């Protein structure tokens, strides 16, 4: 299974936890690629993932399957050559936009499961990864042989507010995406997304660009990117910011590596064994 993560040094804790969850649930070898960079924009400095952290993660996955690996790909040059100028001053970090450069990295395979670093794999996600991406084209429409560019799950909140067609929910959350990189390279989807991020300031820029410009997207069941609350059938749980209405209206943002808050604010103990392993291993990451 080919997995993609993106980010700078600040994602290392979350990355460890997410990788450990994959190691526990996925039986086949894990080929994990991490896109990172070194970049400075004003007072913001983005440092790349350290070689020490990558080597430690690589050791962890190899302990389960010797064919597994974690590989760091520094794409600083690619980012500097085509920076998302219009969105560098937004509250969304430049690191989250690195996925939009995946088509320019020859080492990356044709099919990739992209995961945000705050995603925990609760059950084996092979069914999501291995799903058929053949596009159901209408006969005679000249679309035979086409494939979906990507597959994902509707954004829990954004599905109501953002859509390309008024009566059709199609706004995907970009934290869990099955990328058909071969098709994306053909259509130039990510190239178009980079251009849009360079020229137009947007709310959640990378996610907005993908949803606006993707022509063939496959919408998958909620269990493959649960963004709200753990359910019995959840496969991948994404710890996003959510809204709470009691005892007052407020936002709630708890990340899975914040162990005490996971217990106290989310009342969640599903991952206690995983969190215990994470807490024991975390000091060796740095």
Brief account:
This protein has 286 residues and is of the alpha/beta class. The chain has ten helices and 13 strands. The chain has helices at 12-25, 51-64, 76-81, 126-129, 158-161, 181-187, 189-199, 205-213, 259-264, 272-281; strands at residues 2-6, 31-36, 39-41, 44-46, 69-74, 111-115, 119-121, 150-154, 172-180, 217-219, 236-238, 242-244, 250-252.
Instruction: Please summarize the sheet with the most strands.
Output: 7 strands, mixed
Q: What is the general shape?
A: globular
Compute the gyration radius: what is it? 19 Å
Question: CA-to-CA gap between the ends?
Answer: 27 Å
What is the number of beta strands? 13
- The tally of helices reads 10
Order of helices and strands: EHEEEHEHEEHEHEHHHEEEEHH
| Oligomeric form | single chain
Structural class: alpha/beta
Poorly predicted runs of 5 or more residues: none
> DSSP strand (E) fraction?
15-25%
Mean pLDDT: 91
Helix content range: 25-40%
Give the neighbour order of strands across the main sheet. 5-2-1-6-9-8-10
């Amino acid at each position: 299974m080919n997995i993609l993560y993106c980010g700078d040094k600040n994602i290392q804790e979350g990355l460890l936890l997410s990788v450990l969850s994959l190691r526990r649930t996925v039986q086949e070898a894990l080929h994990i690629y991490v896109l990172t960079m070194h970049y400075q924009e004003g007072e913001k400095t983005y440092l790349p993932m350290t070689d020490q952290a990558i080597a430690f993660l690589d050791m962890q996955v190899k302990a389960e399957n010797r064919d597994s690996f974690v590989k760091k790909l520094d794409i600083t040059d690619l980012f500097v050559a085509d920076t998302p100028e219009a969105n560098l001053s937004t509250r969304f970090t430049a690191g989250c936009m690195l996925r939009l450069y995946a088509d320019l990295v020859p080492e990356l395979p044709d099919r990739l499961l992209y995961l945000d670093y705050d995603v925990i794999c609760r059950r084996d996600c092979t069914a999501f990864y291995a799903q058929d991406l053949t596009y159901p084209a209408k006969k005679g429409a000249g679309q035979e042989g086409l494939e979906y560019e990507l597959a994902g799950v509707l954004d829990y909140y954004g599905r109501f507010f953002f859509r390309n067609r008024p009566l059709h929910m199609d706004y995907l959350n970009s934290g869990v995406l099955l990328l058909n990189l071969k098709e994306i390279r053909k259509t130039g989807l990510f190239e178009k997304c980079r251009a849009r991020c360079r020229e137009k300031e947007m709310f959640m820029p990378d996610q907005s660009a993908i949803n606006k410009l993707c022509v063939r997207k496959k919408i998958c069941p909620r269990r493959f990117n649960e963004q709200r609350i753990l359910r019995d059938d959840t496969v991948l749980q994404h710890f996003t910011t959510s809204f709470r209405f009691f005892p007052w209206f407020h936002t709630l943002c708890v990340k899975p590596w914040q162990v005490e808050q996971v217990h106290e604010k989310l009342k969640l103990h599903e991952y206690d064994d995983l969190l215990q392993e994470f807490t024991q291993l975390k000091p060796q990451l740095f």
